Amino acid sequence: MTKAEVHDKLTAPRRTKRKIAVTKAQMERLRVMMLPGAIRYDKENVQTSPQDPMLVFAEKMDELTSDAKQLETLYMQQYKEVETMADTLDDAHRDVIKLGYLAEYKPTEIAIELNYSESTVYKLKREAIKLLES
User: Fold this and answer.
1) Those residues with Cβ within 8 angstroms of residue 107's Cβ, 6 or more apart along the chain or in another chain
2) DSSP label of 134
3) Radius of gyration of the CA atoms of the chain, in A
4) Alpha-carbon dihedral sign for residues 115, 118, 96, 68
5) Dmax over Cα atoms in the chain, in whole Å?
6) Cβ neighbours of residue 97 under 8 Å, at least 6 residues apart?
7) What span, in angstroms and rounded, lies between the C-alpha atoms of 34 and 56?
8) pTM over 0.70
9) What are phi and psi of 42, to 5 degrees?
């Protein structure tokens, strides 16, 4: 595996997590847009037609819900792949990879958590990626 491929695999869960957040934000925005049209006091009967915006909103909400479920499944697969990759490493390298890519800690946070210097964290991360390349 090349360095770029290792990097892509390690960062895939974070990218997917961001896509999930965007999809859920779109769902929330759509929910807010649906609320004003849900109750119509100016009409005596409730009537739906092909032009009814509620139907369009409902279809879009179903689509976004389906997308979110697929992304969550993909996230879990990617997370497990990174865990499996990290488990092939020794303790120090594994901890740096798991905290950095799965727990999304910053290098300074990893250094505090593992009681290393920040430069040691960067060194361990570089070494771990080299080990994963082979």
Assistant:
1) 100, 118, 121, 122, 125
2) -
3) 22
4) positive
5) 71
6) 10, 82, 85, 86, 89, 125, 128
7) 10
8) yes
9) -85, -5
Say what percent of the chain tops pLDDT 70. 86
Calculate the CA 53 to chain-centre distance: 30
pLDDT tens digits, residue range 45-63? 555 555 666 777 788 999 9
Report, as ranges of residue numbers, the positions in the chain whose pLDDT lies below 70: 35-53
Q: Which DSSP symbol is given to 103? A: S
Contact 116, 100 (CB under 8 A): no
Q: Give the pLDDT confidence score for residue 50 in this predicted structure.
A: 53
Residue whose tokens read 């990290």: 86
Query: Which tens digit of pLDDT belongs to each residue from 19-33?
Result: 999 999 999 988 887
Sign of CA pseudo-dihedral 121, 123, 126, 129: negative
In this structure, what token pair is assigned to residue 94?
A: 């594994």
pLDDT at 35: 67
**Sign of dihedral through CA atoms 84, 89, 95, 101?**
negative
- What would the DSSP string read from start to end of 2-67? -HHHHHHHHHHHHHHHHHHHHHHHHHHHHHHHHHHHH--TT-SS----TT-HHHHHHHHHHHHHHH
